[in-house]
Amino acid sequence: MLKDATMPIFSPDRHAHVPSYVKLTKQPIAGGTYRPLANDEDSNACAPSALSGHHGSKLYTQKSAIHAISDNTSIFISGAGTLPCLPEMASSGSVSKAEIDNNEQIASSELQPHQPAEQPLNQVVSVCKRAAHTTAKTLSTAGHTAVKATKVTGHAIHTAATAVKNAWHTFINFKAVQLIIKFFRKAYGPWKKRMRFSYAFYAIVFTLLTSAEVIFLQWGMYSEPTYDKGDEVDQTTKILNSVAGQVTKFVSQMWLEQKSLFLVNFVGLGLIYLALIFVTNRFWIATLLFGTAITAFGVANSIKIQLRNEPIIPADFTFISGGDAGNIASFIPDNSQQFVENAVTVVIWIIAICLLLFLLDRRKCFIYCSWRKPFASAKNTVGTFSRALAAVVSVVILASYATNLGTGGSWSNMWAAKQGYTPTLFDAAEDARNNGPATTFLSLTKAPTMDKPEGYSKQKMQAISKKYSKLANSINKSRTQQLTDSTAIMILSETFADPTRLPDITFDEDPIPNIRNIMGTTTSGTMLSPGYGGGTANIEYQALTGLSLANFSDSMIVPYQQLVPTQSNPYSFNQIWTQKYGESGSEAVHPYYQSMYLRNTNYKKFGFSHLYSLDSATPVEHTEKIGESPYVSDSSTYQDVLDLIKNQKNPEFLQVVTMQNHMPYSNYYEAEDVLQSSVTDDTPDDEHSAINVFSTGLKYTDQATLDFLSQLNQINKPITVIFYGDHLPGIYLKEEQNPDDSFLLHETDYFIWSNDASPSANVKLDDSEAAFSSSNYFMSSAAEHMNAKISPYLALLTKLHEEIPAISRVISNRGGIGLGTATYLQSDGTVTDSTSMSKTQKQLLADYKLVQYDQTSGKNYLKESDFMSVD
To answer: For residue 38, what are the contacts with CB-CB under 8 A and spacing of at least 6?
Structure first.
């Protein structure tokens, strides 16, 4: 036993060089013990049993590896309260290891100021152990909680399931429900044994539905004729000329004229129907899809014929793929709403009947097959193979038929020709009326761009390049200006055409007095348009590229949709500016949706840096409209152009396509603002109203254009404007039926004007050069108006315009021109054809076709030369 009441902390002399520990206050020995600072090997050191084993006040030491600190340092732990575990021992006789560890941690923290700066390794290990122990305890608690939650959730689910089960049993135990169950149990036997519809029945449905769709499509191609009051037309003629009469003639010509065009359309639609049957292997599902799709196609085709005198063609589906289906629907006229609603009703009936028959027919698969066990038996093997083969063969035959139908000499073309098929794709509407819209559509699925001209070769194109380079040099000797020194604005004004040009229509006031005055003081004339009621993109394509639709294959109807998207580097006139100024050389403005006619794709290919539209990344800023019109006004579009000019760094080529006067022509404007026209008594009221609304829109365009040119005159930059209307609106129903007026329906107006800051201000080319034109000549005419130097390509167009003032795809009965031929105008406006041309005209036209073929279908040999470059 120790006699002294206190015990000092021992610090050996060999640690004299280390700062000495602070001596603790002596504690009474009773109830106390010596404890190590860390690394305790005995987890029960604070237990009474441990105390009884150390009555000799044996010292506990802790080794330390910190520098020269003693390995045997020890400390006396007071029983009076240094560690909180000792009082508990006195009262309870036991203590937990966690509490001892906690007490040791407290004691250690109290002694921390007296320890060296660096912790002993064993103490770090102890801390890690305590952290691991705490983590394990936390995870254990979380695990118990999760298990408990799972049990609670499982119990709740079980309770809910039991409740549902009890409710179900209660429900089905009702007497009424039991009667229903018994009824269906009895009916299940006969239902399971219901008949499989025969293939003969399928054949009847196939024949009837396909025939009905052929007739429905053809019905939509015709309209009821109108007659003047003074015309004496017998009842038989009226019946034959009616829609029903024309459809009857289309079908009956199989027996009356030995022309089986009904059969050609039946086969075309039938191949589509069969492909759906074999691909889906479900007859009634294929019938549902076929009936719904073809009926919808017929409705859209009828509306497009009514509005634009053009049938649905494969390229039109790019509108849907481009996300413009909703925008197209906005063009549906009011008088077609009932027709659309009736068609929707028919489609609903088709769907309902097909679904009902699908349930009643126990033959689910048209061809038996088993994909799960395809080779389990001979029947499975044959069925699976036949099903796959039928699907592949049907699709291949359909694709082969469609892609070859428009190619002369192919198997499907030759077979259709024997049935009386005579393609007139030059006029798609006429082709659809004569041959059927289904045949017209399928014949355009693969459209050859252009027939290869005779003599096309690299050497020939090099010779043409040299020929027109000499012509350009000769022309440029007398010209002093550069195209790229001015800003050129090419404005396509939607449906702008002088409404007073057509006979039998007069107005109380001139709808376009300002533009008429402008045309009298600057270069201007009449443009021969290939479109009527539509075709904006075609006229725009000609103006931007200098190429003519008249040189393309008959099946190349819309180059913006059929050709340009597949080209890698198509040429357009804006590239004259981009070659000099880079991306800032050309921009475009169209206050509608950018994917219409794939303009967003095509403009990028042409090299325009920006297309400002309603939905472009940087949209048009000015979107004001007039009255209730759904389209942006021309004045707003002009303001967007003025903003671009004010912010431009250099002269630009600006392409502008307006929307204000786009169809349909409803009651958009205030009644007091609408122009009033006088028409013949037999003009339908709908046509008369549309003419008045359309002409009122032209009045707004007339004033907006005058204001626009006045503002351009205030800008101290040379600016030249090329303004033209693309086509007439398809509202002149009476004139459409008169062959003498067909040529008038393809005449619009244009002018080329320069502001006061331009060297070409007040220039007016002679009418012998400008009176008649087509949009492919506008750039060469603008260069002549501006007295600007030109490229060999523009030299070709300049010379061609002198010899053949206008080239277009116009179907006209004037001058002996019939269906399927291009229309060429002479300087006096008379029509000529290629056979009666002079040697010079024929050579120019031949060179023009070679250049167009090289750019669109050939090897593009001219790209290697300077044919498109302006010095």
So the answer is: 62, 104, 108, 120, 122, 123, 126
